[in-house]
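User: quick one, fold this
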Amino acid sequence: MLNNIGLPGLLLIAVVVLVLFGRGKISSLMGEVGKGITAFKKGVTDGTKELDDASAMTETEAEEDRAKVQDKV
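Assistant:
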């Protein structure tokens, strides 16, 4: 169904959306979409950083445990 939409069809859809919602409403909507994408990227970055910190912490604890065992021997 959507495979048959060409450039003229997309332009017609864009004009209809612009007429229905107006330039201001579409502009504010795109601004909100941009903020959402930015927040999502920040969340992914923060999550990755937390995972990296947790794995580094685990490696540090493992090294400390090995050092304690070797000190006892």
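User: anything notable?
Assistant: DSSP finds one helix and no strands in the chain.
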